[in-house]
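Example record for the data management plan.
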Amino acid sequence: MPFPLIHAVLSVAAFIVFSMISQPADAQSMMDGIAGMPALNVTDSGDGGSTYSLSLQVLALMTALTVLPSVLLGMTSFTRVIIVLSILRQAMGTQQTPPNQVLIAISLFLTFFIMAPTFEELNQKALTPYLDQQMPAEAAIMEGSSVMKRFLVDHTRKTDLVMFSEMAGSGDYAGPEYVPMSVLLPAFITSELKTAFQIGFMLFLPFLVIDLAVASILMSLGMMMLSPMLIALPFKLLLFVLVDGWAMTVGSLVATYN
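Corresponding structural encoding:
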């Protein structure tokens, strides 16, 4: 994977960590407390922003890495992909084949593929200017948050967003960048779960028909002690291979984000 894309992925987590300390009052008091430490220096730049020392940047990046799994689950397409693939494996009745590690690897690669345009935009508009010292940290956080919010809003159901905004007591928003993360993230996760289960239901139907047909045939032949799942498994695999099931499933998942 290209280094800019890796930096962009890490920047998503870094933006969240930075945003947690970017509130004016709390951030100022925190920075005043650590400004006297030689290894952690924060200096005010001429344009009203702040410049962080390399040690503080490394500390923030290492902290961001701890929340990266949660960011991956909550702000990308990973949730939808892994749920659909898990339901597909259960529908085929192959037990632990493919194993969990393979499903996670496929989901990660598909997530990077789906999120590549968003990560590249993050890298170009926020991360690279900040690393080149062309943009202060606060501006980079705001720009990166706007990019992620546009992606989240575009793939969140309006009903879920309205539900969480009403529970939070918020009104209408002028644009995606004005939606707070506290409202947008749970709405996005809820929307992703609903979509994943809808896709999983459609995948389950043809395999369910095969199970019912095999069970009916075995009952009519008096083979009630023979497991229908054992007999149906080769027919399921044959059907899945003949229709090029993996390509269809992966292509359909990616197409849902276009």
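Summary line stored alongside the record: The two ends are 22 Å apart (CA to CA).
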